[in-house]
Each structure stands twice: as C-alpha cells, then as structure tokens.
Design brief:
Shape: globular
InterPro entries: Cyt-d_oxidase_su2
Order of helices and strands: HHHHHHHHHHHHEEHHH
Distance between the termini: 55 Å
Number of domains: 1
Main location: membrane
Pfam family, one: Cyt_bd_oxida_II
Helix content: over 70%
Strand content: under 5%
Number of helices: 15
Family: Belongs to the cytochrome ubiquinol oxidase subunit 2 family.
Structural class: mainly alpha
Keywords: Cell membrane, Electron transport, Heme, Iron, Membrane, Metal-binding, Transmembrane, Transmembrane helix, Transport
Amino acid sequence: MDLAHLWFWIIGILFIGYFVLDGFDFGVGMSLPFLGKDDVGRRQVINTIGPVWDLNETWLIVAGACLFAAFPQWYATLFSGFYLALLLILVTLILRGVSFEYRHQRDSLRWKGGFDTMIVIGSAVPAFLWGVAFANIVNGVPLDAGHNFTGTLLTLLNPYGLLGGLTTLLLFFVNGLLFVALKTDGQVREDARKLAFRAGALALVVAAVFLIWTVVAHFSPAVLILAAIAAVCLVVSIVCNLRGIEGWAFGFGAVTVAAAVLSLWFALYPNVMPASNDPAHSLTIENASSNLYTLQVMSWAALVFLPLVLAYQGWTYWIFRRRVTRSHIENAVPVH
C-alpha cells in the first residue's frame, strides 16, 4: 500500500474517532431537554462531558489538517462546495463551546436556560449535518472537469443525504444517553436508560434502512460485513442497556458508530469525491493526493505525535472516570 492510500485510511480513522467521541458529546447536549428535571440534574448531564468535550473536538481539527495536507484537491472541493453546511456546523460548534463556559457565570435560570438551548442547537445541528455531508460524499455530487462542485445546498438535501443525517443524529443521541447513564446516578441515570431504549429502537430502524441503502448502492463484501456489525452491535447495546450493563452498552454503541462510518469509508474507496454527473470528473486517491515528500513528512510526524495524543486522551478519561453524582453537584461551591 502506497502512502496516499495509507493516508486515506488514516484520515478515515481520525474521522471515526471524531464521530465516536464528539458524537456522544452531541448526544449528551441533545439530551438536556429530556433528562434534567431541575438545574442540579442539568448540571449533572453537562458535567459528564465537561472535562472532555473540547479534547474530543481536537479529532476534527487533526482530521481536517491531515485532509488539507494529504489531499489538498479533496479539501478544496469539499470545503468550497459544502461551505454553507460546514459554516453552519462551525457556528453552532462555537455557540456550544461558549455555552459550556458561560452557563455557570450567573445564577439566573433564564440565563442558564438560554445557554442550555444553545447547547442543544449546537449539538443537534452538527450531528445532523455531518451525516448529510458524509452521505453525499459517498453517494457522489455533481462536479465539473476541474473537480469543482456545481450544485447548491439544496443538492445536498436529497433523500439519501437526509437519511444519513437522521441516522447520525439518532446514533449520537443514543450514545449520549448511554454515556449519561454510565456517568450519573439517581433519576438522571434512570431517565437516560429508559430514553436510550426508546431512542435506540428508532435508531435501529433508521440506521438499518440507511445501511441497507448504502450496501445496495455501493456493494462490496467489506461494506456488507461492516454494516452487519454495526446493526448487531446496536442491538447488543440496547439489550445491555435494558439489563443495566451500562459500560458494555456504551461500548457497543461506540462500536456501532465506528463500524457504520468505516462502512461508508469502504463504500467511498478508492474515490475521495465521486462525481454523480460524470465518473470522469471524480476525485480519486491518486489524482487528489499530495506529492510523495509531503506524505513522507506527514507519516513521520504521525508516528511520533499520534501515540502521544492517544495516551493523553486515555489518561484524561481515566482521571475523570467516576460518576457525576447529584450529591457532588449539590455540595459543590458555586462558581461566580
């Protein structure tokens, strides 16, 4: 395997890491209207991801930087063609980050409620639009001979793209609920488990339709196997949640997201941006990649720094592994 193909898979792994980690962040944010019966309960929910949400978002930054360096033509076509959707994702991510930091600055319920709303919006919009974007990347978009996107935002809002967005929205929501159940106690924990079952049943139906569509449209043994793994893991996750095995439930939920995204990556290969109007206009690994020297430098940098990033993130999760209990929130000194 040459370096261009290797970096295609490395970038895929980076996006998988982002969707698994920031995905459950989005789910936690979307759960706020359903779980927190009072401010203490909502603080419980938010504090489950308080120490890690910004660290999880670094996966997106690294994936985007690697995409720019390894496949500049892919980066240019993607970010110029999808700029409205990506700009909306960026704006809502900023709103979400600001809300996490400013929510606790006043005791006013109206103040906190406003930022809670922005957390929900800043979680739901990216969760949906990332699915729309990646579904369109896999299914193909209209490109001209210079590999420029010739459609509009409405072009992306096709049935397959919308179904992809709904799939990621529901899968992230379920994973967020499972994470809340794993990290909290009391009423919040019980409510998260109950809601995860109902949302999981809906996600199973929607994701099954999307993955079947993907397998039929882009069939390969790898796509079929990974789609089946994603479906089985989601069922096992729901069963584990019903039995109160929260760690396993969240773990299988994470594998569901990883397998689903990896199936899309296999469906895309060896293209990076297929043209729906003319296959001759498609961007492939070969015609979109950087030169060999650039890829070699990137490979050495990844070999040195990627293990350090993984070690640091693993250490962070280990340090903040304990449950966020209601009594801890109630006894905490308010921050003004």
